[in-house]
Amino acid sequence: MRVVPDDASTLTVPALFCGPPTSGNGGWTSGALAAVLDPSGEAPVRVRLRRPPPLDVPLGLVADGAGLSARHGEDVVAEAVRADVAPETVEAVPADVARAAEARYAGLTSHPFPTCYVCGTGRAPGDGMRIFPGRVDDDTEGRVRVAATWTPEQDADPATAWAALDCVGGWAGDLGERLMVLGTITAQVRELPRAGVEHVVVGGARGAEGRRTSTASTLWAEGRPIATAEHVWVAVAPEAVR
């Protein structure tokens, strides 16, 4: 086991990128860690979140074999490894359909984390990404899809690309019915989102068993799938995310 070089020895999740009020957005945190493990961004990476990422606290980065972990003291917050298989692509949704679906976003009625940097209704334009995925028709296999549009104000970094792939999965699952947090995300970003380009974010349900819900997501730009992800969400008690 070795500590990574000094220029990448810690990772801090700024409060701006929160999910719940006191912890980091899972997608942003995972993407930031993945970018340290694989700076090229070419390979799919799987990140497992073991506990809520603390905000504004330097997390020590420790490399072990092919993996990398972020630690708060002795506690492992997240672990990243290269994945063998890229996530599957969720079928595209036309931009006008995705735009109309935003009016059906379940979070507009009841949102467990209105502070969330990605999908929070309590974030003002320019302060959060405001990706509001609403239900669209099921895919060709009868699986639920949700979709939204997103136009970045500036070119995105890898952490922001992962963030865009995150919450849409939760809303494709049963986040509107029970409280869940991201447990594992596997993502591959082939192209970074560009400023001024309207993107379509699509999430798809993949099933549930016990406390775990599986979903997938794809970020589309100009008709191309530029990033994909698969997620496992874990149902939690409210006191676990305060």
Descriptive account of the structure:
It comes from Nocardioides marinquilinus. InterPro entries: HotDog_dom_sf. This is Thioesterase family protein. The chain is an alpha+beta fold. It has 2 domains: 2-82, Hotdog Thioesterase (Thiol Ester Dehydrase, Chain A); 95-241, Thiol Ester Dehydrase, Chain A (Roll). It is 14% helix and 33% strand. Strands 1, 2, 3, 4, 5, 6, 7, 8, 9, 10, 11 and 12 form a 12-stranded antiparallel beta sheet that branches. Helix 1 packs across helix 3 (158-172). The longest helix has 15 residues, at 158-172. The relative contact order is 0.18. Residues 1-6 have low confidence and may be disordered.
In short:
It comes from Nocardioides marinquilinus. InterPro entries: HotDog_dom_sf (IPR029069). The protein contains three helices and twelve strands.
Helices and strands, with pairings:
Elements: E1 2-3, E2 10-11, H1 26-37, E3 45-49, E4 59-64, E5 67-72, E6 75-82, H2 95-101, E7 134-136, E8 145-150, H3 158-172, E9 180-189, E10 199-209, E11 212-221, E12 224-235
Antiparallel strand pairs: 1-4, 2-4, 3-6, 3-9, 4-5, 5-6, 7-8, 8-10, 9-12, 10-11, 11-12
Helix pairs in contact: 1-3
